[in-house]
Amino acid sequence: MGTPQPRCNASFKDFRCNNVGMQIAVIIIPILLTLSTLLVVVVVLWKSCLRRRGQKIEPIIVLNAEDLNHEGKEQGVVNTAASFEDLQHNPEPFLEKWELPPDRGIKSVEFLCDGRFGAVCRATVGKKGASETGQMAIVRECAETSSPGKVREFHDLIKFHIRVCNHSSLVKVLWCQTTIQPLRLFLADMHPGNLLSYLWKLREGDLRGVDCTYDLTEKRVYSMALQLASGLEYLTGTLKLVHGYVAACNVLIDQDMNARLCGLGLAAEVYRMGALSYGKDAEVPIKWLAPERIVKRIITEKSDVWSFGIFLYEVVTLGSPPYLALTPPEVLPKLKSGHRMQKPEQCSKHL
Asked: Any transmembrane segments, and where (predicted)?
């Protein structure tokens, strides 16, 4: 009889019991570990790509149809084939009551600036042939040479202002002109008008003794801030929108420091499309953008809160731009490192 072979025991360190099996295990196990690691990496990269793609195509703010149940509201891709003639053949009934009355016309015009669609002017609107002064208005025009897409976009902008600007802290619509060219939007003018220009004028000298309008007390600053916060809350809470460019240049004031938000072009873009295109978002200066918006190009109500803080800094410093010592490319790295602007000397702790 031959000598019996020893039985393999896992507790023994004699690997000669199954030498061939161990050699196979030494080869297969590393291969399986490598393949599983590669699979995990591929899955992570795939999900990351999907997430980035979703950030590019998903709406920045999803409009809730129940909250924005406006008759005739158009949402989606802009009809680039639309033209002024198309609008004439397909008038919107709800715009009729907002059309500039036939017996009224523009009496005097003061050019202010070139806007996105055409000239922006301050004008006097009154009855034709009457000697009375008329009503002052800010007039936004769509140039007659505009592309069909621009015409449609401006037409949608008119509808947006009429439907949305129903709050005491948003710029008020007076009339529109959609039946003849050029297309026009008439907004209520205020005096002294643009807040940033007002702040710069305060820098020219002590005007408080000449005109009480130029007596900017902390109480007035606080009141103005409350008004604008109320307007922003209306946009985000009621309409699920954001302003997108909260800054002194987009605020109008009157002699009693009643303030109204204007510059609602970005909000109109979100209202119409359900999202904000990268090109429109890039029109806002970096120094007014929240850090997360600079990096991810995502806009939320929190981004407006950040910009609201920048706006308050402008007011307290009489129109000084934020981050004076920084160039735009330097802003984001500094913010990431924890840099924040110091409280201006003329600003109380309460404010």
From this structure: 20-46
